[in-house]
Amino acid sequence: MIDLRSDTVTQPTVAMRDAMARARLGDDVYGEDPTVAALEERAAQLMGVEAALFMPSGTMGNQVAIACHTRPGHEVVVEAGSHVLNVEMSTMARFSGVLPRVIAGQGGVFTADQLEAVIHPDVYYLAPTKLVCMESSHNAAGGRIWPPDGMLQVAERARARGIAVHLDGARILNVQVATGIPVRQLVHGLDSVMFCLSKGLGCPVGSLLCGSRDFIREARAVRKALGGGMRQAGVLAAAGLYALDHNIERLAEDHENASILARGLSEIPGASVWPQETNIVVLEISGRLGAPELCRRLARNGVLASPAAAGTHPRRIRFVTHLDVSRDAVLRTVDLIARELRPSAV
Ligand SMILES: *Cc1c(COP(=O)(O)O)cnc(C)c1O
Fold first, then answer.
1. Which member of 162, 249, 307, 327 has the greatest number of CB atoms within 10 A?
2. Closest Cα partner for 294 from 320, 322, 333?
3. What fold is seen in the domain 12-246?
4. Whether residue 65 has its Cβ less than 6 Å from ligand 1
């Protein structure tokens, strides 16, 4: 099977499993797991911040950040296609009691002026705007990169109005590799950043929430309150350390494979492809065949892709490249789709 549904489907390599098996462990709720501590230290250095906290999932990382930056009744500015708004089970409403204030961005991106327009003035009869969330690369927009200058401008405007800034950087290391800009520079001046180990970095589990020492102290308590205190989690953190050592630079291969996929698909009659910047390719098909049917046909031929992951659009399919997808697999996928979309095949 060629599994292009998501970069979360990767299997840990033998070398990663070895690192996991050899990890020194302790009870992390007691602060005694040396491998978790090493990973948190390492992540903080990578992001250029004071501290980091190991999280069981990216969703929990984002939602703990929101809980720490806000109080019930506050507003959180988010983009219409963002992960925190659409695929995190309304958690900001459930657990933090906050209201998302939604900006319709372009390609997942909004401007400082668009932010300014939705910030409430400081009057007692309007809910305080306390947090803005950005997402880069943007999942639902097809792996789009938030232009670093634009991100900086949004963050500066937010700070000028006393608003905290959180980055959903599930795939921010893909952005580092695609732009060549060190991640610590990309996230400079933000209040918190979440990034995932469980995506392109190839770990079975885990994300990191990064920020100031005070922020992370509070986040640690909120994580525990949500049931996210983990015991001998070093067995998972060891995979993370391995990934930070070995799997960052290789993301360039995933981007190259995505680019080959995007170019190949765009040459098929009846197919168009969204701008491809990182490891996600979104295909739109015209003609009689819909996305669910094309995905079923691909699956019968050994290729898995997501018909609905780019939204519920009936003609859109998302493909994500990762370390278990080879160049050859991508070329075979293009050939197969070209065959399925030939007018006579439909
Ligand atoms: C995957 C992802 C997350 C976190 O997802 P989990 O499955 O909870 O780890 C958050 N934001 C974005 C943009 C993602 O792609």
1. 307
2. 333
3. Aspartate Aminotransferase; domain 2 (3.40.640)
4. no
Q: Where in the chain is the domain with CATH 3.90.1150.10?
A: 250-340
For residues 144, 145, 149 and 151, what is the CA-based torsion angle, rounded to 10 degrees?
90
Structure-token pair, residue 296:
């079923």
Give the bridge partners for 282, in sequence order. Answer: 318
The finding on whether 58 has its CB within 6 A of some atom of ligand 1 is yes
**CB of 170 closer than 6 angstroms to any ligand 1 atom:** yes
Nearest residue (CA) to ligand 1, atom 14: 170
Check residue 325 and give its pLDDT.
98
| CA gap 8, 285 in Å, rounded | 25
Distance 184 CA to ligand 1 centre (A): 20
Best CA proximity match to 273, nearest among 132, 150, 143: 143
Architecture of domain 250-340: Alpha-Beta Complex (3.90)
Provide the strand spans (E) within the chain: 2-3, 51-55, 75-79, 99-103, 129-135, 164-168, 192-196, 207-211, 271-273, 280-285, 303-304, 316-320
Please work out whether the CB of residue 283 comes within 6 Å of at least one atom of ligand 1: no
pLDDT tens-digit profile of 255-305?
Answer: 999 999 999 999 999 999 999 999 999 999 998 889 999 999 999 999 999
Which residues in the chain are classed under CATH 3.40.640.10? 12-246
3-state DSSP assignment of residue 240: helix
Q: For residues 202 and 180, is the Cβ–Cβ distance under 8 A?
A: no
69 touches ligand 1 (CB under 6 Å): no
